[in-house]
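Researcher: Here's the sequence for the chain we discussed earlier.
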Amino acid sequence: MTPSSSRAVYTYANLARGPFQVRRRTLAPLLIAAALLLPPWPGPPAALGATGEIGLLALGDSIAAGADLGEEWSYPRRLGQRVANETGLAVRYLNRSRPRERSGGVLAGQLYGLAEFAPRLVTLTVGANDYLVPSFECVASRIDDVPALSCNPPDLSATTPTLESNLRQILDRLTSETDASIAVTTYYNPYPRGSPCAPGVADLSVRYVNAAISRVVAEFGERATLVDLMLLFRGHEGRAPVGWFAPSPLSVLCLDIHPNAEGQSAIASAVWDAIGSRLRGLFLSA
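Model: Thanks. This is the structure I predict for it:
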C-alpha cells in the first residue's frame, strides 16, 4: 500500500486555555495540513504553564479509523483531545489507520516518515483482519445468509506466526526510529450471549489473537503498553443501549463489529489510563 496524498496532520491545543487555536503545519509534501475542531473532552482542566507539544500517530485498522461512524469519532482522535486537555500541550495528530488493514499493510504502508513526524505517542490496533474479520464474515455468510461474503477463514496455525512477525517488525521500527510511548490494543468479542453469531467461537478466536499480540508486546518492555479491550468490552457486546457496537451499514447483524461512539470513547479512556501517567511524567516533570 502506498502513502496517500490526502492524509492530514492536525494540530490542536488544550481547550481549557481559552479560544480554540489551530496552527497549520506541513509534515512532508505527501501530507496536507488542515484545521481540526474537536468537542471538549469531559474531563478535568489541564495544568497551565506547560510548554511544547506532543505528536500522536495512530496506526492500524478499521477500529482506529472509526469505521461505521467516521474518523472524527475514532478513539485516536478522542485520545488526542484528552491528551491536550490533560497535559496542557498542543497535540500534532495524524491517523494513518485504514479499514481492512492487516499487520502486513501497517508494516508496508503506515510507517513512512517516522523521523519527520517524530511522534511521542503511538497507538496501534492491528491483527483482526489477519484472522478475526474473515472469521466474522464467514459467520455472517451463513447466519445472515449473505452470499457476497466468503467463508474461507485463514488457518490460525499459519496466520499467527506471520502476525507475530509483522507486529515484532512494526514495534522494532517504532522503538528504534522514534522516542514514542506505544499503546497497543487487543480485540474484543462483539457478540452477546445468545446471539446467533456464534459468540463462543468468536470468543476463542479473539483470545487466540490477543494472546499473540500480548506475547509480542511483552518483548518491548516499558516502550510498549498493552491495552486490554476484551475486558473493557465485556458486558457491552451488541448494540445500544447496553452494547457499544454500531449497526453495520450493510444491515448484517453478524457484522456489527465496530465500536459506536460510546465504545470509541471508552477505548480512548482506556488508552489514557494505561499511558497517561507516563506522559505526565515525561512532559510535566520540569
